[in-house]
Amino acid sequence: MTTTAKEFQNHIGGKWQSAQSGKTFPNHNPATGEIIGHFPLSGKSEADAAVAAARSAFDKWRLVPAPKRGEILYRVGELLTRYKEDLARTMTREMGKVLKETRGDVQEGIDMAYYMGGEGRRLFGYTVPVELPNKSGVATRDPIGVVACITPWNFPIAIPTWKMFPALVAGNTVVIKPASDTPLSALRLVEILYEAGLPDGVVNIVFGPGGTVGEALLHHPDVAVVSFTGSTESGRHVAIEAAKSLKRVSLEMGGKNAVIVLDDADLDLAIEGILWSAYGTTGQRCTACSRVIVHSAVRKQLIEKLVPRIEQLRLGNGLDETVDVGPVINASQLDKIHSYTGIGKAEGATLVTGGSIAREGELARGHFYHPTLFADVRPDMRLAQEEIFGPTLSVIEVASIEEAIAVNNDSKFGLSSAIYTQDINRVQRAMRDITSGILYINSGTTGAEIQFPFGGNRGTGNGHREAGIAGIDVFTEWKVVYTDYSGKLQKAQIDQSEL
After folding, report:
1. Whether 270 and 352 share a structural domain
2. What are the C-alpha distances in Å from 52 to residues 65, 204, 223, 227?
3. Do both 197 and 135 map to the same domain?
4. Which of 64, 141, 224, 297 has its CA 20 to 30 A from that of 237?
């Protein structure tokens, strides 16, 4: 770990650099309010310099054999493993979630490093028969160029690895603009990439607001691909602006995920899944459960079992191993979450527990919200339709599996769903009819294994997927190479010469 000062810098073309303006912005611990460090308040000039460095490095990096690119990622995986605890503690200080979750965040980066390192010896194309004699054809992947990665604060190491590692192993170069709430975690990741032997300029990191740095990357003519994770509103803006210059865009956006609990469900198992899905990461996950769609036959029993478990959750600094729920990321998000408590009450939903900002003792120093449960929520309420991104859960009552699936699908999002039932026939129906990118059977809505494609439908994304083999697709172009060794001109679809 090379950068230890309290004032940090951009990394552009292999050099640490401050913003030309000399201005910085503070990075705060959301649990305590302490300042962790100051980061450069960059703008268009720094973004342009980073793109120029990445474009210059591309010509050499794309010619490095893919297995060698993969070997660098293997070393990244080793270093992430070595630094795992330090990275986890840095992340908890920076964004608040508890240590067991930040360790898991780093582990996703480790898994992605090894998985994409292996792709360096595959990067599958394909060979199929051609229609003319003495001729062959092969489809291969080419890198595209400079990739702009615009990443969020809730998974500040895992999500950058989902974007950068497939881009790098495919031969692209990268400019990353991390969220301003979590710059240090991303900086540590870039340091590790260079410690692993990445050539200068292949990855560049620029800190600053989306309105300046992000916009500069979005409109730069030398940026070929934009990979964005964030809100649906911001993602829509990215898609519209990038379309003007025909950039390729990958969007991972919001969710309004549901756990369906049917009348034959194992309620104790369902409650464990609901608690983890709704209140893990303080509900600040795109895969977080914010709706429980429960059969009327077990609704009362489920709520009776669920409420005391919610009220037992301990709020506090995520560095304390006994804490269950950490802080919300910042004051504006805290206010947004609390506003939905007022919205829910006004709509006629019943506040069962929680619904207030935590101001007790040490909690008053940070941005804490009591885990919240609403009952008597209708599917058309704002509570049931809008992404809150906090520890607020709504219970919606239904009378059948058909109604449960209809309510689940009645959302402008379509990322993750779950169903609890012991009936294999109901499982098969859910697998067929639920319109989410991810479906869990008898488990919660959270968690993703990196060897599978991750993403969702409708307002959750634009059709691309991250992780797995599918994660390489957005960062490569298909190229088909034909070789005719007949010694004469052959015209496909026209030439009818005898074999």
Report:
1. yes
2. 23, 10, 10, 18
3. yes
4. 141
